[in-house]
Design goal:
- It is a lipid-anchor.
- This is Endolytic peptidoglycan transglycosylase RlpA.
- It is a single chain.
- This protein has one domain (about 30-135): RlpA-like domain (Barwin-like endoglucanases), CATH 2.40.40.
- The chain has a six-stranded mixed beta barrel.
- By secondary structure, the protein is an alpha/beta fold.
- Strand 3 (about 75-80) and strand 4 (about 90-95) form a beta hairpin.
- The N and C termini lie far apart (about 45 Å).
- It contains two helices and six strands.
- The chain is elongated and about 75 Å long.
């Protein structure tokens, strides 16, 4: 095989490896700094999901202060403020979603009740990550 052919083959392999590695990440790796804010529409879920398994493996309890978020790491504590009435609640992320429209968070019924948004079903909110769970890699010295 000529040097030119080997170089072309090597280039193809590098390109294939680069494409393969770009997909090797989890949603959990998304960076969300403490205090970073996200604004958008919130909804809530409850009775039809009571007792179902969440994406974190926990059993969903609509009476706990929990929420579903598409990218915040599981276990993250977030402050959610209803921008329509300035009511606030702290929730723990234990599920993925919402999966409807441009909504940014799906709250448990209990959290939605504290924000006084159960009757309306949705509300404009600000989400601020407060604390993220520690992982084993956080304690690894380099």
């Amino acid at each position: 095989m000529s040097q030119r052919a080997r170089l072309a083959q090597f280039s193809r392999l590098v390109l294939i490896a680069a494409f393969a590695l770009t997909g090797c990440h989890s949603e959990e790796s998304v960076e969300h700094g403490k205090g970073s804010a996200e604004v958008g529409e919130a909804s809530w879920y409850g009775p039809g999901f009571q007792g179902n398994e969440t994406a974190s493996g926990e059993t969903f309890d609509q009476n706990k202060m929990t929420a579903a978020h598409p990218t915040l790491p599981m276990g993250t504590t977030a402050k959610v403020t209803n921008l329509e009435n300035d009511k606030k609640v702290e929730v723990r992320i234990n599920d993925r979603g919402p999966y409807e429209g441009d909504r940014v968070i799906d709250l448990s019924r209990a959290a939605a009740s504290r924000l006084d948004m159960v009757d309306d079903g949705t509300s404009q909110v600000r989400i601020e990550a407060q604390a993220q769970p520690h992982t084993d890699s956080d304690n690894t010295s380099r």
